[in-house]
UniProtKB/TrEMBL annotation, chain A:
Record organism: Eiseniibacteriota bacterium
The name this protein goes by in its record: 2-oxoisovalerate dehydrogenase subunit alpha
SUPFAM superfamilies on file: Thiamin diphosphate-binding fold (THDP-binding)
GO molecular function terms attached to this record: branched-chain 2-oxo acid dehydrogenase activity
Enzyme class: oxidoreductase
Stated family: Belongs to the BCKDHA family.
TrEMBL record, chain B:
Name recorded for this polypeptide: 3-methyl-2-oxobutanoate dehydrogenase (2-methylpropanoyl-transferring)
Gene3D superfamilies: 3.40.50.920, 3.40.50.970
Pfam families: Transket_pyr, Transketolase_C
Domain called Transketolase-like pyrimidine-binding: residue spans: 4-179
InterPro entries: THDP-binding, Transketo_C/PFOR_II, Transketolase-like_Pyr-bd, Transketolase_C
Keywords assigned: Oxidoreductase
GO terms classed as biological process: branched-chain amino acid catabolic process; response to nutrient
Assigned EC number: 1.2.4.4
Keyword Oxidoreductase: yes
Molecular-function annotations in GO: branched-chain 2-oxo acid dehydrogenase activity
Native species: Eiseniibacteriota bacterium
Entry cofactors: thiamine diphosphate
Length: 367, 324
């Protein structure tokens, strides 16, 4: 039930050492382009953050294969319950760069109308659920939605994302236990990037792996090289198919490495040996998959050049358009607290709008 | 019309919903075969099956978080927390998730979950089977907080909660579960959320109460009547959103207010009521607004009767205000 062996298809140089999953050539190219897009976005958005044009950013650099590979086997009707580093899943499923940049800025064009800080993305059209910053909470929701799908006899699959730090949370325990007891069609996908801000995995758990924790719940647990796109796809495809066909939940531990800081606010040199980062540079997931594709004759330098230029242009246009958009209207603070605004809130809104319009109040307090 | 206790009325509301709406699912600890420790879900699993009336593992965060996921996916879950004293492991799921999902997703997602939980003292349940934590939830935008005080209201309010679009914390005064029996209409009817009820009409003073403190306040009002004082008792029924209009209408008319709750005094719901009256009806007041509440202590076991406000304590406050 638990396989702690690290599943691999490609070695660090991109040579096939395992069984590659069947993927059409066009998809293989699209997957590579997507990882390039994520990498480019990280570079450009971090630069915008450093210029003070967006407030916060969470890099996925080094984790592109885990993220993209987890998204590829899903159907459009499946749901994802993401955390900080899974925006790439939404992008793969149809969220646009423009939508993402608007969310990072928090303007009127933002799907979330500036209510959440950057990276706390959500997009109903791709079934990506809005998440909070409290770690682990989304796993229970993924379990609940999966349980509901089972009750309603629908064959949608839910994916709950978590990092290594989140596996210590109480919601992790509740989600895995309930999911196993109810045999809910959910996949728990853990990006073990080995750092929870400054706390290394060894301070998070002394289990021999994270995957082995699934054993305590009577759940299938697997380990995969998270920097090996093909291995992640293979493992995820099995887990999703198992869930969809009534085989119950799976816990996937994707071993990867956070190349940057926890976020744009974090300085990893305070707590992490730079030598360690260098060893992981050699295992770069994008270069590795690129080497594989080149070996198959599916990727050329010209492709990479064209794609990089196209992606760069798409981002530039998105930033220009997003920066021209106004801030959300004041009343957006008050809407959606409830489906229908209660009287008390309406009074507060009217007061806030009047203050915003510069109305002077003499005498009686208007509330 | 059948006579029902509050427990029977709540069971009836759940049964009506489970029959009419396939999206309704009841979940919680011991709600299945056992019918809940207070027997509120008695017979429901036998009638509707284990998928729709589901026992869960013992983890409140799993129950509420699971219900949130179910509701997002389109179901109408009613989650039972066995005693509201056990709700704190799910506090984060309620405050950070349940209450905020609609807003933080800009209305892309919502989670109309009803969280049912018995609350309050009077059954010799000790510290962890007696608390009244309603104020914690009233401080959370996005929630609705409902507390019935009669069987008929319990059914009507629960049916409203279960067909509404937003989450409801539905606190059931367990002390009144079986102590009152009254006519309860059969089938579906709803009692609107956000509307108070005049439990006893009066002209000289308004007692604001909810849940198990309503009958206590009515008893105190009867004592006052013997002294020739006409006291109104307003049963708030919904704490969030408060029926401000009903509260102010009554207090402006009577010119006096006493607030009763069994929860501790400091930052209790009475503070909100008192502030609302002070902001909007100060000039109508003929006396200070008084609060009769539980003490600012943990809930005692042996001396429970000295902790809970009773008619004597409420009457003492009425007397003080009337003689001011």
């Amino acid at each position: 039930m638990i396989d702690e062996t690290l599943r691999q298809v490609l070695d660090d140089e991109g040579r096939v050492t395992g069984t590659a999953p069947e993927i059409p050539d066009a998809d293989l190219r699209a997957l590579h382009r997507h990882m390039l897009k994520m990498r480019t976005l990280d570079q450009r958005m971090l630069s915008l953050q450093r210029q003070g044009r967006i407030g916060f950013y969470g890099l996925a650099t080094g984790q592109e294969a885990a993220i993209t590979g987890s998204a590829y086997p899903l159907r459009a009707t499946d749901w994802i319950f993401p955390a900080l580093r899974e925006t790439g899943v939404s992008l793969w499923r149809g969220t646009t760069v423009q939508e993402l940049v608007c969310q990072l800025i928090g303007n009127a064009g933002d799907v979330l109308i500036g209510r959440q800080m950057p990276m706390h993305f959500s997009d109903r059209k791709v079934n990506s659920v809005a998440w909070s910053s409290v770690i682990g909470t989304q796993l229970v929701h993924a379990m609940g939605a999966a349980w509901a799908a089972k009750i309603q006899k629908k064959d949608d699959v839910m994916v709950g994302y978590i990092g290594d730090g989140g596996t210590s949370s109480s919601d992790f325990h509740a989600a895995l236990n309930f999911a196993a007891v109810k045999q809910a069609p959910v996949v728990f996908f853990c990006q073990n990037n080995q750092w929870a801000i400054s706390v290394p995995l060894s301070e998070q758990t002394v289990s021999s792996s994270i995957a082995i924790k699934a054993a305590a719940y009577g759940m299938r647990g697997v380990r995969v090289d998270g920097n090996d796109l093909l291995a992640v796809i293979a493992v995820m495809r099995e887990a999703v198919e198992r869930a969809r066909s009534g085989g119950g939940p799976t816990f996937v531990e994707a071993l990867t490495f956070r190349m940057g800081g926890h976020s744009s606010s974090d300085d990893p040199t305070r707590y992490r040996d730079p030598e360690l980062v260098k060893t992981w540079e050699k295992r770069d997931p994008v270069a590795r998959f690129g080497a594989y594709l080149r070996g198959k004759g599916l990727l050329t330098d010209a492709d990479v050049e064209t794609w990089t230029a196209e992606i760069g242009e798409e981002i530039s246009q998105a930033v220009t358009a997003a920066e021209a958009m106004p801030a959300p209207a004041l009343e957006t603070i008050f809407t959606d607290v409830y489906a229908k605004m209660p009287a008390q809130l309406e009074t507060q809104m009217k007061y806030a709008l009047a203050l915003g319009a510069g109305t002077k109040f003499d005498g009686a307090f208007p509330l | 019309m059948p006579q029902m206790t509050m427990v029977q009325a709540i069971t009836d509301a759940l049964r009506v919903s489970l029959r009419e709406d396939p999206r309704v699912v009841v979940l919680g600890e011991d709600v299945g075969k056992n019918g809940g420790v207070f027997r509120v879900t008695e017979g429901l699993q036998a009638e509707f099956g284990a998928d729709r009336v589901a026992d869960t593992p013992l983890a409140e965060n799993g129950i509420i978080g699971g219900a949130i996921g179910m509701a997002m996916y389109g179901m109408r879950p009613v989650a039972e927390i066995q005693f509201v004293d056990f709700i704190y492991p799910a506090f984060d799921q309620i405050v950070s998730e349940l209450a905020k999902l609609r807003w933080r997703s800009a209305n892309q997602y919502s989670c109309p979950v009803v969280v049912r939980a018995p609350y309050g003292g009077g059954i010799r349940g000790g510290l962890y089977h007696s608390q009244s934590p309603e104020a914690y939830f009233c401080h959370t935008p996005g929630l609705q907080v409902v507390i019935p005080s009669t069987p008929a209201d319990a059914k009507g309010l629960l049916l409203s909660a279960m067909t509404g679009e937003d989450p409801v914390i539905f606190l059931e005064p367990k002390r009144l579960y079986r102590s009152i029996k009254e006519d309860v209409p059969e089938g579906r009817y709803t009692t609107p959320i956000g509307k108070a009820r005049t439990a006893r009409a009066g002209e000289q003073l308004t007692v604001l109460a909810y849940g198990a403190m309503v009958p206590v306040s009515v008893e105190a009002a009867d004592m006052a009547a013997e002294r020739g004082w006409s006291v109104e008792v307003l049963d708030l029924r919904t704490l969030l959103p408060l029926d401000t209009e009903a509260v102010l209408e009554s207090v402006r008319r009577t010119g006096r207010a006493v607030i009763v709750h069994e929860a501790p005094r400091t930052c209790g719901y009475g503070a909100e009521l008192s502030a609302t009256i002070a902001e909007h009806a100060l000039t109508a007041l003929q006396a200070p607004v008084l609060r009769v509440t539980g003490w600012d202590t943990p809930f005692p076991y042996t001396l429970e009767h000295t902790y809970l406000p009773d008619a004597k304590r409420v009457f003492a406050a009425i007397e003080h205000v009337m003689n001011f």
